[in-house]
Amino acid sequence: MKISTSYFYDRAARNIGDAQLRLSTTQAKLSSGKQLAAPSEAPDQALSVERLRAAVNHNEALTGQLRSVQARLSSEETTLVSTNRLLIRFKELSIGAVNDPFNPDNRVAMAREMTSLREELLTLANARDDRGQYLFAGSAVGEPPYVADAEGRVDYRGDQTEAWVRSGEQQIVRFNRAGNDVFVRVLRGDPQNPVGVPFFDVLDDAIAAVEAGDSAGMGRGVGELDQLLRGNELAMVQSGADQRTVDNQTLQIEDNVLLLRSLQSDLEDLDYTVAASRMKQEMNALEAAMTSFGKLSQLTLFNMIDV
Q1: Residues 236 and 84: beta-carbon distance below 8 Å
Q2: Is 243 exposed, middle or buried (0-12, 13-18, 19+ CB in 10 A)?
Q3: Which contacts qualify for 293-302: CB closer than 8 Å, 24 or more apart?
């Protein structure tokens, strides 16, 4: 059996090439910090990594949405607390006017302060979030929800549409609130057929009753202010509950992201200690292959074998 010199050279050269390839692959992994130098090296593992990366991105997008909702709810809560404080003061003045109906000077002073409070409440009703969107306009967030006409009467121009944001695979949270859910109407008139009176009409009627010394109107105003305060307090409770829901969902998603990242790291990130040890072995193997090839090429017997 004849063995050609070229066979031994080719085999030795392939051994050197394979060793160099293994070494360069390990060096590339050490440089990138990844287990796979290319997806083709382990397609199933690469696919699992991509799926985990997509899941992380999806959950981080949900977290971003929830942060926006939380920022809006925080602005909403601040506005509701301020509204509550102004309504309490408005009611205190109304009660003071009821208890001292025959002092015109005091009533004038009270009516002026009540009018100032009413203007502050109108400003709060048109409050915006950190992105400049109106808090209490329903879905019509680009325009002021409460607008005064030529006679000063305030109308609600927003809508009752609620927007919801996905906070998980099967969870959603409310993103906006209609003004009528916060600045509520009160029921007035025949109990069998009551009429809904808008928030700012109630305030205007109470102010007018104080200015006129109308005892019946002032008494009615005190009772209706209780309804306005209850509506405000219910809105604060709901806002607080919404914030707790968002907090819980955010924490849950952040925990999911940590778990997914850990799984992704196990599949994707390189163990530097193991890789460095492997590179040392591959360097030794390459050196041995090159030494063997050098010695092989010096053997005179090869020069005597037929090609």
Answers
A1: yes
A2: middle
A3: 293/12, 293/13, 293/15, 293/16, 296/8, 296/9, 296/12, 297/9, 297/12, 302/5, 302/8
Superfamily of domain 69-264: f41 fragment of flagellin, N-terminal domain (1.20.1330.10)
Beta bridge partners of 147: 155
Confidence check: pLDDT of 305 > 60 = no
Per-residue tokens: 176: 């906006």
Q: pLDDT by residue (tens digit) across 12-63?
A: 666 666 556 565 665 555 555 665 555 666 677 767 777 878 878 888 888 8
Q: Is 161 helix (H, G, I), strand (E, B) or coil?
A: coil
Phi, psi for residue 172 in degrees, rounded to 5: -135, 155
CA distance 238 to 232: 10
262-295: b (≥16 Cβ within 10 Å) or e:
ebbeebbebeeeebeebbeebeebbeebeeebee
Segments making up each domain of the chain, as ranges? 69-264
Q: Check residue 188 and report its DSSP letter.
A: E
- 166-218: pLDDT as tens digits: 766 667 777 788 889 999 999 998 888 889 999 999 999 999 999 998 989 99
Tens digit of each residue's pLDDT (9 = 90 or more) over 5-26: 566 566 666 666 655 656 566 5
| Dist CA 41 CA 285 (whole Å) | 21
State how far the Cα of 251 lies from the Cα of 270, in Å rounded to an integer: 29
Residue 224 burial by Cβ neighbours in a 10 Å radius (0-12, 13-18, 19+): buried
pLDDT at position 141 = 87
